[in-house]
Amino acid sequence: MTQKIIKLTVRDIRFPTSLELHGSDAMHTDPDYSVAYVVIETDQGMRGYGLTFTVGRGTEIVVCAVEALSALVVGKSLEEIVSDFRGFYRLLSSDGQMRWIGPEKGVIQLATAAVLNSVWDLWARMEGKPLWKLLVDMEPRKLISCIDFRYITDALTEQEALEILEKAEAGKQQRVDQMLKEGYPAYTTSCAWLGYSDQLLKQLCTDALSEGWTKFKVKVGADLEDDIRRCSLIRQMIGPNNTLMIDANQRWDVGEAITWVTKLAEYKPLWIEEPTCPDDILGHAAISKALAPLGIGVASGEQCHNRVMFKQFLQAEALQFIQIDSCRMGSVNENLAVLLMAHKFKVPVCPHAGGVGLCELVQHLILFDYISVSASLDDRMCEFVDHLHEHFISPVVIKNAHYMPPKDPGYSCEMLESSVQRYQYPQGEVWKQFKKQSLKD
After folding, report:
1. Is the dihedral of CA 365, 371, 373, 378 positive or negative?
2. For residue 170, how far is the Cα from the chain centroid?
3. CA 373 to chain centre
4. CA-CA to 334 of 20 to 30 Å: which in 60, 83, 230, 268?
């Protein structure tokens, strides 16, 4: 644990997913799935790996922010950090000058997440455990000491959080054994990106059903008639008893969202995800109230900046499903706070995943939530998108539409160096080829 961090490097890694419209939705029509990829090195030869997810242009800005934060990390020992992890979190998120371009939101928080993810990865590697097991095995008071409760004590105090963790100690080992055997339930978004043709959509649904998938999410929001047609097609494909969710990716105004989703209600969606601006807490509350008689919940959180916004969403009863993201907020530290608040407010957590590495990371958080916080699988599932896992040293494992718990030490962030070099922007081989082709054209 006396490992001293002597170096931090960050690279811009981009995958040209826009070519086949993977990840396309009503707001992000041509995403190139990307990461700001962080590696920290210690004087004892250990490494920790972290990342934050982006969709192409702008990744270079996150890289600059990580470089700006690096001076707060290099020179510290892992022991120094984890002995006061709350203090270290505040050091990064509340630097007296850099917080001005946040605070605790936007690019600076994405960069903070990437750096902290690498620290958590290093800590788990030092302990020889996958991150979820590091968290599950951690003494409750130690775990609480990793969380910054500033600004949320009106919703969750340290004592309440401690009591939640202590209560969940009962039956914990049985839940660990259950997860190792069965895994955590997942749903798929891979079948119905907005840019996919009907032919591809049908084929992907057929394949998914044959593989045991029972929960499907469809992107909506660009054209109502097209949404009606596609939702009808998906519902016919998956049958009346499987679960359907819809996702507008922030496309609508509040009134428009209510009207649009009402017209899709006959297809029995469990939730409408991100129906409006992700910052509009009262707007989400109004939509939730309007759609409740239809039996349709509201889900959001993948672009929720921080624990304070989640606090207000919960207090306003604006969400029926909480969607945490492993890279949007301040890494594990801040996600722990949200998991505990969600449990207190009795709102199920159904994480956002996909992109580059989000599935690999968030599986650790949702396993911890079930084993050490909620002890429930009611109305709970974790998103899965089948893209780009082949670029990771320890790729996610899905079995019978369930996430199987990772066994390798760390936070599952480490990428294959060959992939990093090939897709590094703009000097990687893939991007040099694109540049050559554009010059020819």
Report:
1. positive
2. 28
3. 18
4. 60
CA 57 to chain centre: 20
Tell me the two tokens of residue 132: 């979820």
pLDDT single digits (tens) 359-405: 999 999 999 999 999 999 999 999 999 989 999 999 999 999 999 99
Question: What's the CA dihedral at 407, 412, 417, 419 to 10 degrees?
Answer: 110
pLDDT for the residue 408: 98
C-alpha dihedral (73, 79, 80, 84), degrees to nearest 10: 110
**Tokens in use for 207?**
């394949």
Mean pLDDT along residues 175-192: 95
pLDDT tens digits for range 72-81:
999 999 999 9
The pLDDT value given to residue 25: 79
Question: Token pair of 369, please?
Answer: 């939530």
> Dihedral of CA 75/78/82/83: which sign?
negative
What is the rounded CA–CA span in Å between residue 400 and residue 389?
17
Please name which of 96, 144, 137, 114 lies closest in space to residue 37, comparing C-alpha atoms: 114
Two structure tokens written together for 351: 């994480």
Bridge partners (DSSP) of residue 185 are 402
Quick: pLDDT tens for 130-141: 999 999 999 999
Q: Among 53, 98, 32, which Cα is nearest to 71's?
A: 98
Q: Among candidates 386, 388, 33, 353, which has minimal Cα distance to 213?
A: 386
Q: What is the largest CA-CA distance in the chain?
A: 65
Does residue 1 register a pLDDT over 80? no
Taking the C-alpha atoms of residue 125 and residue 100, their distance in angstroms, rounded to an integer, is: 33
Q: What is the mean pLDDT of residues 124-128?
A: 98
Give 394-433 as a 3 state SS string. CCCCEECCEECCCCCCECCCCECHHHHHHHECCCCHHHHH
